[in-house]
Amino acid sequence: MPSRLALLPLDKSKPGFYDEPAFLAAEQNDKTLLDAYAGYIDGLALDEVYLNRARHCVQRSAKFLHQWLIRDGRKGACIDMSQMLSRFLEQQGVWNYIVKGATALYPAPHTRLEPKFHWLYDSNGDPNATASHAWLCAPPFRIVDLTLGMQQNSGNEDRYLGEPILAEHASRDAARLEEVFDPAIRAAYQRQLGRPISMKDLSEIDPALLEKLNRRGSWQVDLADVSVRYIAVAVTAPDQPFEKARGWSMCGKFGWDLWLDFQRLAP
């Protein structure tokens, strides 16, 4: 059976074809079409020549934008920075997609720090938020994360992250309840059910969420002093052409201006 993307008149030879009119029109009736775009990238047979070039492009672009983020000092910029980096990579012909979800940090015992959660559902967070964090998948990197240490409620454990996080190897695992819901929400479900909630209960409480968690997966990156778990629930993408986007800036420079600065640097 042909894939959803195969049925559309798209030029799938280069990254960013979600911008094409046929894709945008189909997406109006299928809000999961970006998942198909991510699946297309996951299924690409990429040779070592491409992977070596992509590795260089990701490392160089991530370093450049991370330096600008540090200079700007902005916190909570995960969506904006992920979109900017995604556009940088597309300009260089590097396949990638943006993932939204939650994160959990588990510091090593010698740090004497407690686990830190950026929950998917946080009773003290923005009630309109659809995720607590965003990052990229850009083969050969499973996780490309510029901003985890600069979230709004960053703590002492963030100094162990060594950002930007560029992880080629990440182990896939099932999501854990304590990484999805904060304690207050779990307690509310416990009162409703008359017993502690389990992941199995999501099949009745929120089957759509369970399906998203199972489809995108959770990924663990083990660093020297902390393990970071990425709980993925959705794929997103920029909604404006790169050269016209005015939603994100660093130190007063929009993404396209930063891209022009980046191009002037020696490769």
How would you describe this protein?
The protein is built from nine helices and ten strands. The chain has 267 residues and is an alpha+beta fold. The strands form two sheets. Strands 1, 2, 3, 4, 5, 6, 7 and 8 form an eight-stranded antiparallel β-sheet that branches. Strands 9-10 form a two-stranded antiparallel ribbon. It starts with 20 loop residues before the first helix and ends with a helix. The mean pLDDT is 90.
| Rg calc | 19 Å
State which percent range the strand residues make up.
Answer: 15-25%
Average predicted local confidence, pLDDT:
90
User: What is the helix tally?
Assistant: 9
Stretches where pLDDT falls below 50 for ≥5 residues?
none
Helix content: 25-40%
Oligomer: single chain
Whole-Å distance between the termini? 43 Å
Total number of distinct structural domains: 1
Q: Helix and strand string, N-terminal first?
A: HHHHEEEEEEHHHHEEEEH
Q: Could you tell me the number of beta strands?
A: 10
Secondary structure class reads: alpha+beta
Largest sheet: 8 strands, antiparallel
Give the CA-based shape.
globular
Compose a concise summary of this entry:
This protein is of the alpha+beta class and 267 residues long. The chain has one domain (17-262).
Task: Label this structure with key terms.
single chain, 267 residues, alpha+beta, 8-stranded antiparallel β-sheet, two-stranded antiparallel sheet
List the helices and strands and how they pair.
Blueprint: H1 21-27, H2 33-42, H3 48-72, H4 78-91, E1 97-107, E2 116-118, E3 133-138, E4 141-145, E5 165-167, E6 171-173, H5 177-180, H6 183-193, H7 202-205, H8 207-216, E7 218-222, E8 226-236, E9 249-250, E10 253-254, H9 255-264
Antiparallel strand pairs: 1-2, 1-3, 1-8, 3-4, 4-5, 6-7, 7-8, 9-10
Helix pairs in contact: 3-4
